[in-house]
Amino acid sequence: MFNNMKNKIREKTGSELPKFSLGQIQQKVGLGRHSRQGSETSLSSIAPEDDVRSIQQSPPPPSATAPPPTTATLLEDPPASPLGLKPVNNELVLADGKSLTPKDLTRLAKREDEWRSRLEKRDAEWTTKLERREAELTRLLEDKEREWRKQEQSLTEDLLRSTRELKDALKMAEECKRKMVQHQEDKDQLEGFQNQELSKIKHLLLQKEQENAENGSALKEATALVETLKQEVNRLRPFEEQISNFQDDIECLRHSSEKERWLLSSQLAQSEETVRHLRDRVAVLTCRSEAECVALGATLSSDERVQALLGERALLERRLEEAHVHLSDIKASWSGQISALETQVGRLSRQAGEEGVERRRAEQKIVELEAKLEEEQKEKQRLVAKLERTASERDNLAQELKNVAQDVAITKSENVDLSEKVIDAEKKCLEYLAENERLTQELMDEKLKSKESVSGSADHNNELLVEQLAQITRELESLKEKNEELEKAAQAIREERDGISLKTAQMSAELKIANQQLEVQQQEYNSLHLRLSEQLSKEAQEQEAHAEEYKKNENSFSHLEQELQATISDLQDQLGDKNKAQHLTRAVATLLKFSPEEERLLRDTLEWKMSWFGSRPRLPSSSS
Questions:
Q1: Where, if anywhere, are coiled coils annotated (predicted)?
Q2: What does the alpha-carbon distance between residue 240 and residue 245 come to, in Å, rounded to a whole number?
């Protein structure tokens, strides 16, 4: 099963799986969840305490990154140990003479077998999970493929059906086109025959009555053919609408097929992106596992870890001392600030003599503000005049808007009249068309009569009817031209009405903007007036306050000294033991850029030092 899984991974990734030695796997597992159990199987835990001391006092090995040898390799070919191990009579002898018995080596072998069984069990679990996941992915992929096949089949059927319909419609269109061409050819031929017959009748009517009879029969046949062709044309007219409907259906089907194709392509791109993301994740996890295995190639013993923690503790204590020094500097700066406040009290006493000069300045400033107030009064009058002028302009715009509304109403009434005229013209056009059909029918009747009587009166009547038909056609064309002119006039009136409506909307917007500007100017004037009045009252109050302060300098100075003393005492009270420790902790964490875990450890250590019966804080477990 495991070989099958490796073959599948090799097919997907295109590369072999990385091979790990048993020592590296033991290091990874021992430093993970079972770090304590792994530490029990180390050589230092099996050796006596004297051997451990000698190992601690000996210098570190030069190649710390080499993987640890297994028990089997120690039994078969024991290498030169960096701890001074020497094989003597199937026993490993340490540098100080202590030896490891085969029992200890057997115990290590048992530990190794136990870890190997655990690793095999874990490999089996991961193999089952991977196979289950592959089965789920395979099932999902098969479902997607079935859905895609169904959609492809339905689309293919729709495409074939639409293709058949289009072919049928194309055949019908070609047939209609052929018939129309044939009809046009027959019509042209008939017109040629008519012209030939008319010319023959004009030149040979008096000479050949027999030929005139033949021409009459030919004319009768041609008239019958024209009637049949007209019926055929009337029959073929509905097919034009069907052709347009077929074309619309073709466009709809093309649009739907394009939409489905884009949807399928987007789904395919999404699935490819998902596969690529999963491959990237697998590659990242593989690199991470390799990096962890490489990083965990060199293990530290528990004693070396304790030495590292003690070094970190010494570093933290040194940083704590530096924080104490920084706190003393802060206290010195506070004392300097207190002396600065005392000097400020003396400076305030000197400033009392300058209050008279400031009072005179304030009086001069009041004079300037009064002049500014007069200027603001003038500005107010100017704004009031501008407001009245804007109000008059608004009234004029309102009157002009009323006139425009009246013009719009008149234009609407004219538009209604023109619409009625257009409707009347269309009715007349329909009447003329009916008259044209009636005259055409009369012409056909006259042609039938002319076939029976082969005489010059028939030709004369024919010519009269042709002239009447031409005259009616000209009248119909003139009516169409008049109708087009009326439509153009109606369109011009509509455009003029739209322009008037647009102009009315623009004038309304301008009027609204003018009203808003008037409101804004009125608000600015009110706020300016209020600000000036407040500033004048504030200056008067400041002058009164300066006068009272000038009279009561001694009381204010004594009160200020009392407040300073109270502030100093409050600062000293606030710097209690607990607040001092908290400020110290924050200062140390800020200066040394501690993490939240290190700051919490420092705070717990300070609380343990300051308390009587507090518990000693636990050091965080090292992950390396």
A1: 127-186, 352-581
A2: 9
Instruction: Give whole-number Cα distances, 525 to 193, 271, 339, 382, 514, in Å.
Output: 97, 68, 50, 11, 16
Q: How far apart are CA 422 and CA 489, in angstroms?
A: 10
pLDDT tens-digit map of 171-202: 887 787 787 778 778 878 877 777 776 666 66
pLDDT for position 465 = 62
Question: CA triplet 405, 411, 412: central angle to 5 degrees?
Answer: 90
Q: What is the Rg, in whole angstroms, of the alpha carbon atoms belonging to the chain?
A: 56
Q: How far apart are CA 278 and CA 137, in angstroms?
A: 12
Query: Which own/partner contact pairs does 499-504 have at CB distance under 8 Å and 24+ positions apart?
Result: 500/404, 500/407, 500/408, 500/411, 501/408, 503/404, 504/401, 504/404, 504/405, 504/408
**Token representation of residue 582:** 């908290």
DSSP 92: E
- 157 Cβ contact list (under 8 Å, min separation 6): none
Could you give the CA distance from residue 373 to residue 86 in angstroms, rounded to a whole number?
A: 107
What is the arithmetic mean of pLDDT over 615-624?
56
pLDDT digit string, tens, across residues 89-99: 555 665 666 67
d(CA 71, CA 142): 49
- pLDDT over threshold 50, residue 422: yes
Percent of residues in the chain assigned helix, strand, coil, to nearest 5: 85, 0, 15
Q: What is the rounded distance in angstroms from the CA atom of residue 115 to the CA atom of residue 121?
A: 10
Q: What is the 3-state secondary structure (H, E, C) of 167-230?
A: HHHHHHHHHHHHHHHHHHHHHHHHHHHHHHHHHHHHHHCCCCHHHHHHHHHHHHHHHHHHHHHH
Look at domain 353-554 and name its CATH class: mainly alpha
Q: Which amino acid is at 121?
A: K
Quote the CA–CA distance of 8 and 565 in Å, as a whole number. Answer: 83
Q: What are phi and psi of 87, to 5 degrees?
A: -75, 125
Distance CA 340, CA 134 (A): 78
- Amino acid letter, residue 533: S
DSSP H or E stretch at residue 321: helix 302-351
- d(C-alpha 260, C-alpha 126), whole Å: 41
- Strand positions, DSSP E, 65-150: 86-88, 91-93, 99-100
Pairing mode, strands 99-100 and 86-88: unpaired
b/e sequence 194-227, b meaning 16+ C-beta within 10 Å: beebeeebeeebeeeeeebeebbeebeebbeeee
Q: Where are the domains of the chain?
A: 22-141, 150-294, 353-554
DSSP 99: E
Tokens linked to 288: 């991470």
Cα 531 to Cα 525: distance, rounded to the nearest angstrom? 10
Contact predicate 467/364, CB 8 Å? no
CA–CA gap between residue 105 and residue 212 (Å, rounded)? 139
Report d(CA 71, CA 100) in Å as an integer: 12
Mention every residue, 6+ apart, whose C-beta is less than 8 A from residue 293. Answer: 20, 24, 28
CA 114/CA 100 separation, integer angstroms? 21
Q: What is the pLDDT of residue 35?
A: 41
User: How far from chain centre, in Å, is Cα 387?
Assistant: 49
The answer to whether 227 and 248 have CB atoms below 8 angstroms apart is no
**pTM for this prediction:** 0.20
On whether the CB atoms of residues 31 and 22 are closer than 8 A, the answer is: no
